[in-house]
Amino acid sequence: MKLKLSLLATLLLSVFIVNSQQLENSTLWKISGNGLEKASYLFGTIHITCDATLDEDVKNALDETTQIVLEIDMDDPSMQSKMMGGMYMKDGKTIKDFVSEEDYSVIDSLFIKNAGMSVKMIENIKPFFLTAMLYPKMIDCPMQSFEMELIKVAKTQEEEINGLETIEDQIQVFDDIPYADQVSDLLRMAKDNLAYDKANFAKMLKTYKEENISEMLEMINDENMSAFSKHQDKLLTNRNKNWISKIAEYSKKQPTFFAVGAGHLAGENGVIKLLMKAGYTVTAIQ
To answer: Keywords on this record (predicted)?
Structure first.
């Protein structure tokens, strides 16, 4: 009986330590232990940036691994056609179904100013995709992508690129989050012609450069971005939990370099602590 209580106390203590551990500022983490013959690595990216140069620690991790796994297999030749097929709102919905004529006009002006087209031409596309069309306007520089840089490395090293989920999985997220919430964010962006979002994105780039993954997660909680703050379970938590078994499966077969959005790393339901809870040793590379 005493042995059982001792084991239970040890288990509870280990869970408490994992849950209370303050994560270091780092976007690169080493995954080891739990039966792995060789270490794998977890890298937090930012999908849009001014400088996607890979630092030496990341390059070394890429040299030590034999495949790259992104959120989705971006090297899949069918990805673009699948994405195009999932871009449109279901049940014949359009932006007009969620806003007044006055607000529709405000959104229309946003796209005329920033995309060179009227929203009338694309009003049946899911609001998240419409928002993504405006991302290049968030930064005052040519847009770069860490994912594209990693794909270049994979091709140079003749390594396989895989995904933790399918493009269909990601598209489903944008159907699970109410279109009304997505449109609400789009309207807020339109009312100040992206001013708030540009300032917020500049702050996020700075935070990413500082590798402060905990603060990046807090920024996603911004109530001004309701589709993100209200639906973190769909955007982050559920996906993170689904990824752990995939990470385990890939890592057991061969040393793998995983790269996901940095917002997925921190937090009690972030990938790092979920891997720790699954028995892995996850160590910051600083």
So the answer is: Signal
